[in-house]
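task queued by scheduler; priority normal; single chain, no ligands, no partner chains; default sampling; output format set to structure tokens
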Amino acid sequence: MDADGDGKVSVEEYVQWMLYAFDRMDRNGDGVLSTDELPGGKGRPITREQQRQTLVERFHKQDANGDGFLSAKELSAPPR
């Protein structure tokens, strides 16, 4: 996840890493996970941008000390 090897994960690194799953599930490559592409074939469609925004929000919740990076401790902590 730490693409630049500086020992911490930036929001950009986190989002890039986490969007990998979205991109793998988006079988037709249209930037939208339709119901049939979602796990279990259930749920509302979601765009790549909506997923990116959700990931940014999660990042900031995990950033316990508010420094704009995730440490190994923050990454391994249960979701907040």
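post-processing summary
- The chain is about 45% helix and 10% strand.
- The beta strands are 9-10, 32-33, 46-47, 69-70.
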